[in-house]
Amino acid sequence: MGEGGAKRRMRGIAPRKDFRCGANPSPKRVCRTVLVALSHKGRGHINERRCSLRMPGGNQKMSARYEELKGLKNIGQKYAYTDREVMLYACGIGLGADPMDENELAFVNEGTFTPRPLKVVPTFASVAAWGSGPGEMNLNRVMVVDGERDITFHQPLPVAAHITADSSVLEVYDKGKDKGVVISHQTVLKNEKGEKLATLVASRFARGDGGFGGPNLTQPDPHKIPARAPDKTIDIVTRPDQALVYRLCGDRNPLHSDPEFAKKAGFPRPILHGMCTYGITCRGVLQTYADYDASAFRQHVARFSSPVYPGETVTMDLWKDGNTISFEAKVKSRGVTVIKNGKTVLG
Ligand SMILES: CCCCCCC[C@@H](O)CC(=O)SCCNC(=O)CCNC(=O)[C@H](O)C(C)(C)COP(=O)(O)OP(=O)(O)OC[C@H]1O[C@@H](n2cnc3c(N)ncnc32)[C@H](O)[C@@H]1OP(=O)(O)O
């Protein structure tokens, strides 16, 4: 028997099933849910492909798949990290590329010679409990992309910690067979005293799994970008090997490192992790409006509208209105917007 998941997590290592979208959907599990639903509700009929349960008498359509996803919850997942993970994440989002830049060194060097207290990038919260989540979603993982991320920072993250992650699915938006399904889920990170460190809301866009029925829900409107010209524009260069470094922070999805897998998913080559681009936009706000003060961040939100390829330059447009920074990001060389509806709240 190998090392157990809980033990690996305590040692700051992602559990073995660290890419959790599930390569092999488990029909057994879905059908068990249907059987339970059937035994409770009596009559009904099962739609074989998606195990959709249609109740007789009226047009109420209940989807067992919807119920299965909506019910996922995983409370009390234990993790630990050290300054090693903190610095690796900072390198993973490209900080420290200029070894003479003291502002960036503060995130990638613990100051064993020149006293320099290590700072933690706020969006490190996204990998601090990598592998946590509400449970197995049984999605076609080749077709899953990260859709949106919204992190609320309750207090600055320590440079090393034992933390607990409580995860649950918030909502499931079935966009239809041709579009896919958006699953919104939340993870709350707490320190050993039980105080909240960060609340992460993630939306995964599963392009191959829509059309199973369920309530007709509309996603909340994303943050609106001001209509005026940007107040500031900055360029952030990514390295050709950026995804190969970033994946060591936890997300080993082959979409970011294996050309054959990327082709299967419809991309000409491996794409950068959405969460790496997310961290890069956090860098952009840190350097432009926060004077590299990580403790100033209250919230950071972004929607991934198109992938970035490692090695590309990300151009970020920023708008400041009081404590709210709005942002978008483009890859000018391809003429695409890669981040939309971005918002940071500083305090
Ligand atoms: C914890 C989570 C982790 C999950 C596992 C992921 C592991 C990671 O390793 C994977 C990654 O990092 S992938 C890289 C980052 N993500 C991307 O590059 C995605 C880029 N975006 C796209 O491809 C499309 O916008 C796409 C496909 C997202 C949408 O394109 P379209 O279908 O053309 O969208 P559109 O027609 O404009 O809109 C349809 C409805 O969907 C809503 N929507 C659009 N973009 C969204 C997005 N990014 N996130 C969430 N919802 C989104 C729209 O509002 C619209 O809704 P409605 O039908 O209600 O009007």
Describe this structure in words.
By secondary structure, the chain is α+β, with helices and mostly antiparallel strands. It has a single domain (64-346), classed as Thiol Ester Dehydrase, Chain A (Roll). Helices cover 22% and strands 30% of the residues. It is built from nine helices and 13 strands. It has helices spanning 5-10, 27-41, 64-70, 83-92, 102-108, 125-128, 242-246, 259-264, 274-289, and strands spanning 45-47, 52-54, 61-63, 73-81, 144-153, 161-174, 181-190, 196-206, 232-237, 297-304, 313-321, 324-331, 336-346. The protein has a ten-stranded antiparallel β-sheet with strand order 4-6-7-8-5-10-13-12-11-9. The longest helix is centred in the C-terminal third of the chain and has 16 residues, at 274-289. The model is unreliable at 1-61 (pLDDT under 50). 3R-hydroxydecanoyl-coenzyme A is lined by residues 21, 144-148, 175, 179, 182, 202-205, 207, 218-219, 251, 253, 255, 271, 273-274, 303-307.
Topology (SSEs and partners):
Layout: H1 5-10, H2 27-41, E1 45-47, E2 52-54, E3 61-63, H3 64-70, E4 73-81, H4 83-92, H5 102-108, H6 125-128, E5 144-153, E6 161-174, E7 181-190, E8 196-206, E9 232-237, H7 242-246, H8 259-264, H9 274-289, E10 297-304, E11 313-321, E12 324-331, E13 336-346
Antiparallel strand pairs: 1-2, 2-3, 4-6, 5-8, 5-10, 6-7, 7-8, 9-11, 10-13, 11-12, 12-13
The structure holds 3R-hydroxydecanoyl-coenzyme A (HDC).
3R-hydroxydecanoyl-coenzyme A (HDC) binds at residues 21, 144-148, 175, 179, 182, 202-205, 207, 218-219, 251, 253, 255, 271, 273-274, 303-307.
